[in-house]
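Retry 2 of 3 after timeout on previous attempt. Resubmitting structure tokens to design endpoint.
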């Protein structure tokens, strides 16, 4: 793990792990005026049970109120609130939900004493967003739990290697789908602090939905949106400071890296789908779009549409595309090539992130693309979509 990735993980350690130890973000900025916020609740099977409301402070949860449900499970909590903030509503032996409220909201909650995941909340748009996100997160975790159980059941099977490959594909499909959902959630709700929860969600201990190293662009996006709307939130300020430090380090790394513009792109040899070897150097004399991708990444599959456009526009010129796949399943790799119509050169070591090419090119996320000129020198990196097509237009039509 390089220093860049280590510092990215520090963001998770500082901002995510404390939340597990009852620390979290403080009140956010906003144009809200202070007022009384109320939570009117119904807790099924909750007669006589205590319900606790805590504010997520900068370094600890701050108890605000404790009430007891009546004989039918009803309760009412009212509290003075100055700014938009996160709260924790606790009930039962281990039940809790996260709320995101603004001053003056009249919130209605309905839940079950022994099932924290089955609840409804209304009257608070921020809390409703968190409920929607929590429901999708729960589905993904349950599906991953099923895979883990099946893996334990099959570990002694003589066909375990083949069966595990199928389970791995299902695991990748589930995590990729939830990551895509979370990315859409972040972009659709960019002005809401609810995106912090989406950014820091985990599939399990040490397995973040958005890896700080590979998905740093997502951290940059959330940082910019939160600083524009909620700069007084301490977690936002801390995230911003870490992101700025990583950006400085990343820029320094790029200057000293082998991918500096004008330097010769590192040559390599890898295997085509038919098993024969291919080198990058064999494409000298052409502009080469070198792209790192994987069949299991929806972001890569979407970017493939851009590459198809590029090939349609420039394929009759001295232009070639070479894609390096970070797959470990040959059938899935070949299937994606055919399904996406990728009629150009492909190689893969079928080792996922363990391929030496990842280290050779410093790849920490996919898709990742490099433009190489006919002399083998690096022209540009990190261009996607329309920006990539515009750059190729300048290079090949001028």
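Retry 2 succeeded. Sequence:
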């Amino acid at each position: 793990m390089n220093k860049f990735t280590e510092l990215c993980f520090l963001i998770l350690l500082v901002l995510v792990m404390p939340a597990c130890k009852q620390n979290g973000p403080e009140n956010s900025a906003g144009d809200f005026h202070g007022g009384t916020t109320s939570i009117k609740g119904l807790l099924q099977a909750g007669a006589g049970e205590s319900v606790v409301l805590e504010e997520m402070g900068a370094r600890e949860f701050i108890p605000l109120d404790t009430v007891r449900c009546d004989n039918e499970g009803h309760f009412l909590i009212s509290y003075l609130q100055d700014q938009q903030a996160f709260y924790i509503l606790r009930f039962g032996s281990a039940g809790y939900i996260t709320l995101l409220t603004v001053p003056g909201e009249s919130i209605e909650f309905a839940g079950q004493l022994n099932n924290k995941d089955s609840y409804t909340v209304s009257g608070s748009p921020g809390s409703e967003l968190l409920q929607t996100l929590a429901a999708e997160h729960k589905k993904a975790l349950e599906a991953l739990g099923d895979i883990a159980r099946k893996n334990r059941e099959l570990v002694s099977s003589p066909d375990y290697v083949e069966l595990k490959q199928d389970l791995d594909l299902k695991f990748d499909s589930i995590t990729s789908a939830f990551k895509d959902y979370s990315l859409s959630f972040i972009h659709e709700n960019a002005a809401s602090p609810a995106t912090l929860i989406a950014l820091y969600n985990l599939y399990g201990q040490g397995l973040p939905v958005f890896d700080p190293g590979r998905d740093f662009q997502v951290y940059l996006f959330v940082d910019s949106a939160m600083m524009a709307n909620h700069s007084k939130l301490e977690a936002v300020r801390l995230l911003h400071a870490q992101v700025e430090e990583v950006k400085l380090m990343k820029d320094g790394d790029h200057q000293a890296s082998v991918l500096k513009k004008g330097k010769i792109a590192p040559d390599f040899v890898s295997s085509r789908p038919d098993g024969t070897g291919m080198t990058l150097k064999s494409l000298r004399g052409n502009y080469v779009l070198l792209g790192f991708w994987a069949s299991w990444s929806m972001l890569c599959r979407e970017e493939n549409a851009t590459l198809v456009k590029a090939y349609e526009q420039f394929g009759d010129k001295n232009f070639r595309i070479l894609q390096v796949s970070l797959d470990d399943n040959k059938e899935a790799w070949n299937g994606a090539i055919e399904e996406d119509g990728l009629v150009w050169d492909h190689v893969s070591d079928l080792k996922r992130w363990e391929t030496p090419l990842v280290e050779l090119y410093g790849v920490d996320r996919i898709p990742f693309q490099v433009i190489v000129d006919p002399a083998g020198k690096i022209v540009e990196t990190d261009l996607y979509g329309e920006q990539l097509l515009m750059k190729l237009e300048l290079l090949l039509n001028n």
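Attempt log closed. Residues 13-31 have pLDDT under 50 and may be disordered.
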